[in-house]
Amino acid sequence: MSLGAAELQQSIPSIFAPWIAAMELEVLRVAKGEVELRMPVKRDYVHVGGVMCGQAAMAAADTAMVLAMMAELGEFRPMTTVQLQTSFLRPISADHCIVTARVLRSGKSLAFGSIDIAGPDGRLAVQATTTYALL
């Protein structure tokens, strides 16, 4: 079964914590094992330096990878983050960013992924890798 952008968008409030749903992530594009999201950079995500804080980026990356796993599997399956390693390459000071998550490998019990977060100009700002345990 294939999941499209509308199905993934509708699943966010029922799968994730309310504060993740409040991030207002917008599913822009879906392919097998891959999603692209638009993330508004809300005032609450900006620290005193005038740029988006790393915690908001990591929450978006983790959420995007779960959605990419759903696109890979064709459904939601319970899973938990085992590892999330994040590198912050440049600050994001725009009103939104683009989050692209890709499943690199999905096995019976573990899955591995990569997430890129870019500013509206397309310049890579955050790169993360993840490992998930499928429950």
Secondary structure layout plus pairing:
Elements: H1 5-15, H2 18-21, E1 26-31, E2 34-40, H3 54-73, E3 79-88, E4 96-106, E5 110-118, E6 124-134
Antiparallel strand pairs: 1-2, 2-4, 3-6, 4-5, 5-6
Give a verbal description of the structure:
- This protein is an alpha+beta fold and 135 residues long.
- It has one domain (5-134): Roll (Thiol Ester Dehydrase, Chain A), CATH 3.10.129.
- It has helices at 5-15, 18-21, 54-73; strands spanning 26-31, 34-40, 79-88, 96-106, 110-118, 124-134.
- Strands 1-2-4-5-6-3 form a 6-stranded antiparallel sheet.
- Strand 4 (96-106) and strand 5 (110-118) form a beta hairpin.
- The longest helix is centred in the middle third of the chain and has 20 residues, at 54-73.
Name the features.
single chain; 135 residues; alpha+beta; Thiol Ester Dehydrase, Chain A; 6-stranded antiparallel sheet; 6 strands; globular; hydrolase activity; EC 3.1.2.-; ACOT13
At the first level of CATH, what is the class?
Alpha Beta
Shape: globular
Rounded Rg? 14 Å
- How many helices in DSSP terms? 3
- Please tally the β strands and state the result: 6
How would you state the average pLDDT, rounded? Answer: 97
Q: Can you write the helix and strand succession as a string?
A: HHEEHEEEE
CATH arch. level architecture: Roll
- CATH fold-level assignment: Thiol Ester Dehydrase, Chain A
Instruction: Give the strand order, joined by hyphens, for the main sheet.
Output: 1-2-4-5-6-3
Helix percent reads: 25-40%
* Biggest pleated-sheet summary: 6 strands, antiparallel
Oligomer: single chain
- Which spans of ≥5 residues are poorly predicted at pLDDT below 50? none
Pairing-aware structural class of the strands and helices? Answer: alpha+beta
List the domain count as a whole number: 1
> Roughly what fraction of the amino acids lie in strands?
35-45%
What is the CATH superfamily label? Hotdog Thioesterase
Protein name: PaaI family thioesterase
GO molecular function, one term: hydrolase activity
Family: Belongs to the thioesterase PaaI family.
InterPro entries: ACOT13 (IPR039298), HotDog_dom_sf (IPR029069), PAAI_dom (IPR003736), Thioestr_dom (IPR006683)
